[in-house]
Structure prediction request, 106 residues.
Amino acid sequence: AAAAAFGIADSRKEQLLVSGGKIRRAHEQAHEAARIALQTEITSGAVLSSLNEQRDVIMRVGDHVSNINNSVTGAGQVLNQMRRRSVLKKAALWAMVILLVVTIIV
Prediction:
């Protein structure tokens, strides 16, 4: 009976050692998971910051494009006015030439 009790005690001791090892591994895995989660949080924070900076750059570029578009539109309007004035001046010049020729002939 003593031998049987001793065998049960050894078996129980072995089960406790196995359970202790499993608990230790689970603790290490939990610690590793926490470390990875922290790294992921740091990386995601850096990515979020980078995306925020890129959004700001895109917004500024959009503003610059809008300003350039307004400038180009204004320049186009000025060119159209210059073109109209040029045509009007040429027409006035030809009218004067015709008037001068008619005056000389008559």
Observations:
- The radius of gyration is 45 Å.
